[in-house]
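Kindly go through one protein, given below as sequence and tokens. The question is how this chain folds according to its tokens.

***
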Amino acid sequence: MASPNGYYESWLLSNMSAMSTLESSLRSLTWFLPGRFKDAELASEALAASLNLVSMYHDTLLAKVTQRDPHYHPLIPSSLHTRFTRAWSDKNSRYKWAARALEFIRFTELVLEMTLRRKVSARTRWRMVVLLEAMKAFLRIVILRIVRRPLLFPPIPERDFDPAALPSLSGTPSPTIAPSSVSSSPPATPSHLKNNRVPLPPHPLLTSPSPPTDTSTPVEDYLLPKALTTSSVKPSHALLKTLSYPRDWLAELLYILRPLVYVSLLVSDDRKSNRPLASALLLEVVSRTLRRTPPPSAALERSEYARRDRDMVWYLLRGSIWESYTRPKLESFADMASQKPLLSLFGALVRDWVPLIDEYYYYTAP
């Protein structure tokens, strides 16, 4: 008898393309819900959290299916991030569950804060926020001790394949679904395929492009994209270099503890104080200064550090910077846009989101 998980897995593989489209459409809808009706922001974030959790579960199922099917070979190789995080998830069960727990907290923390704001006092709500940040810091330290390498965001593999290519896997027998009948003889060859000696043309994605006919194109420009890099031949779990020096460890620890320090100072100090923002920004700068400079061949580490540098833009939405600079600018834009036919939609969207940044910590949390 087939298990419920087996039936759901079979249905998911048959409808993955439609499911992916539905997830994308609902996720886009969550951007326009705030301000539409009472508690619309809670409904929006609850929907977004549910979609993220369901997507994480679907990605886990699809990864199992593709790994056990020997005939499945993706046309586009997995990204370095996916290779690294999947290798560690398969290699170490503690890494897998710590990473999943960390993502579960990240997906649901804003919904929990909104619920607590409606049910309990402000003091209790901030205590819960501090507890969540302490749990996240603990899980990140656990992951850091396991991999002994810089932390990646997110710590779980991302979906980097085309769901439209997966329905072909639905015909693969699943170990969770019992076969309905066993055939005693191999299936007969269809008549239109018998004595077929004409080969089909190769797929364009599976063939190498023809050499350039333009003699002015340098040979190096043609061969360089086809050359293997060091990341292509490294084992997946070794795509990041191990932290070797105390300053490397200190840089990662400061980056991990930065959100916990920030929210702890927010709770202990006056909300108008500049100390929380200045402390978090100082830890960010010190961590950036202490961290090592990866070589050009360390593509995965360089991309992670570049993401951290881009995230510093979020400081414009925090503390006194938000109060004295960013919010007045956004409100002026909303007032100006409200008088323009096409920009009025963006102005209304800004007006709906500005109060949420004032009321909830996790909209702009580090």
Notes: DSSP finds 13 helices and no strands in the chain. The longest helix spans residues 40-68. The chain has a mean pLDDT of 80.
